[in-house]
Design goal:
globular, single chain, alpha+beta, 4-stranded antiparallel beta sheet, 6 helices, two-stranded antiparallel ribbon
Length: 218
């Protein structure tokens, strides 16, 4: 499902208007393309599908930190430990010790952010500098996030693949990526417990199980 298209297909498809800046690094499986300077500069992206993710609605501010954009925990605390204010919606005096003990991390959702990285739950990708973009027509229309660089998290099965991405993205794209991987995979629990390599047999099913499905109103 939703595999990366070839360069030939990407250039032939005029609907794919994501712009990649000069000097960007574009990866499609084992192939690396650098210094692509065609106008408009198109790069292979994963296709969306007919599955509606939370009705393809861009997340509203009620579940995002107003300061850093990270998702809010159930208590209203920002999930970004480096945020200048960890309490937003309720205030520190309104949270009891029991609430803090029962507090849970925010769920994954379409458009969740970690600095400049955005999660596209429709295509199961992490997108750098992703912006909501309407693609397709009719029943196939969806809102996806497209930017200058993306990681196909559906292809990450083990810790070595995740580590490869960490070193591959470049220093300027690194901020927020570790937080994103932690939120999406919980690596110490699912990939490298106790320093031992673990393999996710079905990454697609694993990722879908971590994304709450919001049913459309009747």
């Amino acid at each position: 499902m939703r595999k990366a298209v070839s360069l030939k297909t990407a250039f032939a498809n005029t609907d794919r208007n994501s712009v990649s800046t000069t000097g960007s690094e574009i990866y499609n499986k084992e192939m690396k393309v650098t210094n692509l300077s065609v106008t408009p500069s198109l790069h292979p992206v994963k296709r969306g599908n007919k599955r509606s993710v939370e009705k393809n609605v861009v997340p509203n501010s009620s579940r995002e930190c107003s300061i850093c954009g990270y998702a809010l925990r159930r208590s209203g605390r920002c999930s970004n430990q480096g945020c200048t204010s960890r309490l937003h919606s309720k205030g520190p005096s309104a949270i009891s010790s029991n609430e803090l003990l029962q507090d849970t991390p925010p769920p994954l959702f379409h458009g969740r952010k970690w600095k400049k990285w955005v999660f596209d739950a429709e295509r199961l990708c992490l997108v750098f500098e992703g912006r909501p973009t309407v693609r397709g027509e009719g029943a196939d229309q969806y809102v996806g996030y497209f930017g200058s660089y993306e990681i196909d998290v559906e292809q990450i099965k083990q810790s070595s693949q995740m580590l490869d991405w960490i070193f591959q993205v470049g220093y300027h794209r690194l901020p927020g990526l570790l937080d994103a991987f932690h939120s999406i995979f919980n690596p110490q629990g699912n990939l490298c417990s106790g320093g031992c390599n673990k393999v996710i047999k079905d990454p697609t099913a694993f990722l879908k199980s971590r994304i709450p499905v919001v049913k459309e109103a009747a």
